[in-house]
Amino acid sequence: MVFVMFLIGALAVAFVAALVAFVPARSLPVVLVIAGVILFLQFFFSDKIAAFAMGAREVTPQQYPDLHGVVDRLCAMADMPKPRVAVAQTPMPNAFATGRSPKNAVICVTTGLYDQWRTGRLTEQEFEGVLAHELSHVAHRDVLVITIASFLGILAGLVARMAFWFGLGGDRRDDRDGGVPVQLIILLVSMITYAISFLLTMALSRYRELAADRAGALLTGNPSALASALQKITGDVARIPTQDLRQAQPFNAFYFTPAFNRDTAKTLLSSHPSTEKRIAQLSKISQQLGH
């Protein structure tokens, strides 16, 4: 994770240097101001927007006493402040957490996951494993980390659009590149930066999912239950209608398991490691705890 963050930082330095070198001085302040506004909005409101878009509704202990009871118990074990608890009305069994820090975090389960637990398809230990995984995201401040890491890609995409639609760079040509239009250079650099930044952010997300699996397994002391829940939920998600999966895919980075089929989850474009890799790690942790 540290190495990926280093690469993202190095890429950001190179991209900013390219902006300073090629973007006209009169246009550079406009780009920086827009980038600052986007960073502010993303930093303070991206988690709230995501929770709203996924239909998360905060619930009280009186409405869902059993759900609050599990969260209370896990937070006491982890010695962390209790996040707000929410429920999303969707048949897809899943869970997610949002929030920049443990103080303003929200942990949410879908009605599909909650119903599986209440009907016995998921055991108490499996359900605890899923929530422990999501609480680990909160404790690790993963939403904040991914928000910062993904900002470079957003900035690069913004600059590419400005170069394409508004002619950022004008008709100026760069003598060092044989008279290539500066606008074209800015567009190409931005597109390349966006692509590399996206791949690095997805790699970082996969590593942090593995870290959350590990932390959740160690918190409950039951890695096999988390692995079993992962297998059951992944299998159930695969049976969800394709149209519903497509609607959920923009929020895959938040979910316990992505709304993808198994083949797609193995690609570099996935925000989650493959189910097989996650289960293999949990199996090793189980062996370590056994010793």
UniProtKB/TrEMBL annotation:
In the bilayer, the protein is annotated as:
Multi-pass membrane protein
Q: Where in the cell is it found?
A: Cell membrane
GO molecular-function term, one example from the UniProt record? metalloendopeptidase activity
How is its cofactor bound, per UniProt? Binds 1 zinc ion per subunit.
Keyword Hydrolase on entry: yes
Mind listing the GO biological process terms from this record?
proteolysis
Identify the residues that the record assigns to the Peptidase M48 domain, covering every copy: 61-285
UniProtKB keywords: Cell membrane, Hydrolase, Membrane, Metal-binding, Metalloprotease, Protease, Transmembrane, Transmembrane helix, Zinc
Catalytic residues of the enzyme: E134
What this protein needs as a cofactor is:
Zn(2+)
Positions of Zn(2+) binding: H133, H137, E209
InterPro entries linked: HtpX_protease, Pept_M48_protease_HtpX, Peptidase_M48
A GO term from the CC aspect: plasma membrane
What are the EC numbers? Answer: 3.4.24.-
**Entry-linked Gene3D superfamilies:** Metalloproteases ('zincins'), catalytic domain
Annotated membrane-spanning segments are 28-45, 143-164, 184-204
UniProt similarity note = Belongs to the peptidase M48B family.
The name on file for this protein is: Protease HtpX homolog
Q: Which organism is it from?
A: Actinocrinis puniceicyclus
